[in-house]
Design goal:
Blueprint lengths: L1 H31 L12 H17 L8 H16 L4 E5 L4 H8 L17 E6 L5 E8 L9 H18 L7 E7 L13 H11 L3 E9 L29 E6 L3 H12 L6 E6 L11 H6 L4 E5 L21 H21 L1
Helix pairs in contact: 2-5, 2-9, 5-9, 7-9
């Protein structure tokens, strides 16, 4: 009996050691959600040229478009509305009910005679495609820029992508509603407050009883770098999970939503030659919730962010040097086409 116990004890110890040795593998698998798909690339010269034209319009012609220049933010909103209107979408402007109160309470000095009308200059622009179903897919990108930055990558690229996805969707017969939303006031000092345009939209969506299949936040899509050590991470060991070259696009999800993250990653990856990586991480990890998708998480909706990883790659983030000439429009067009194909596929599945 004593020998049997010893043998059992040794086996138990071996099993425990084996489980501990496999822990890094399980962690890698859960965080990165590896996939294997056949890849097709849909980039085009037409799309890359159209994206570049939008980025120049937003980051040069209508700059600056930060909150301190309300006349410019209004011009940007009208530009987006005009581009959306070229499709068969139902296009509306959405008021942000919390803007006026925020401007008064924060005592923000902007060039307006009447701050009680601040909301007239900071609106969401919504384009709706497909039937008026309770279930929907939401794709969003913020159109404001950080103070002092032309905001080419952050986030003229996201808005440019939104506009061109709208034009592609206009040719489709969708089974469920797809909403494209250009958000006001994502950047500081509004970030983390109810004055964010995405908070207003997420709240309205929740109150309407709508069911969200997924919300996709487009946040900086155009900066790529093939050099070694051009990509950094919030935790050093993550470079062993991914790559030290900034030549990929990322799908960012949170713990508890691995299924939708993996699905979006698989659909996007199948339609671009670029590497597509993903991560499911807690919001404590710096950058995981640094965009409009955070407000949909807070309202209980599944959401992901698609990004070139922002300041973990693009050192011009929030600086005057975030200019249109640093964007790789060919690779960006590949990513935008892939996002469109992913959205179309998900809408067709319903």
């Amino acid at each position: 009996m004593s020998d049997t116990r010893k043998i059992f004890g040794k086996r138990k110890l071996l099993v425990i050691l084996l489980l501990f040795s496999l822990l890094p593998f399980f962690l890698w698998f859960y965080v990165t959600q590896p996939i294997n798909v056949d890849k097709t690339d849909h980039r085009s010269l037409r799309l890359s040229q159209a994206l570049k034209a939008h980025v120049i319009a937003l980051s040069v012609t209508m700059a600056p478009r930060d909150y301190l220049h309300p006349q410019n933010t209004k011009k940007v909103a009208l530009y987006i509305k005009k581009e959306f209107a070229k499709t068969n979408a139902k296009v509306t402007l959405q008021d942000n009910p919390n803007v006026n109160d925020y401007f008064r309470s924060a005592n923000i000095n902007i060039a307006l005679h009447d701050k009680s009308k601040a909301s007239d200059y900071y609106k969401n622009i919504i384009a709706e495609f497909g039937p008026d179903t309770r279930e929907r897919i939401i794709i969003g990108a913020h159109y404001d820029a950080f103070k002092g930055s032309p905001g080419a990558d952050d986030n003229a690229t996201g808005v440019a992508a939104l506009i061109e996805i709208a034009k592609l969707l206009s040719k489709e017969q969708l089974k469920i509603k797809v909403e494209l939303v250009a958000y006001c006031l994502e950047e500081p000092p509004f970030f983390l407050t109810k004055a964010m345009g995405s908070y207003a939209h997420a709240s309205t969506t929740k109150n309407s009883g709508s069911k969200v299949k997924v919300m996709i936040s487009l946040e900086m899509l155009g900066y790529y770098d093939n050099k070694s050590a051009s990509q950094s991470y919030p935790l050093g060991f993550l470079k062993y999970f991914y790559s030290d070259q900034g030549n990929f696009i990322s799908v960012i999800g949170k713990f508890g939503q691995t299924r939708i993250t993996r699905k979006i990653k698989k659909l996007v990856s199948a339609n671009t030659s670029l590497p597509v990586y993903s991560i499911n991480a807690p919001t404590l990890l710096v950058g995981v919730d640094f965009s409009d998708h955070r407000n949909y998480w807070d309202h209980g909706f599944p959401a992901v962010m698609i990004t070139d990883t922002a300041f973990y790659r693009n050192k011009h983030y929030h600086l005057p040097t975030d200019t249109y000439d640093k964007i790789d429009y060919q690779r960006m067009s590949s990513v935008v086409a892939a996002i469109y194909m992913a959205v179309k596929k998900m809408a067709d599945e319903s």
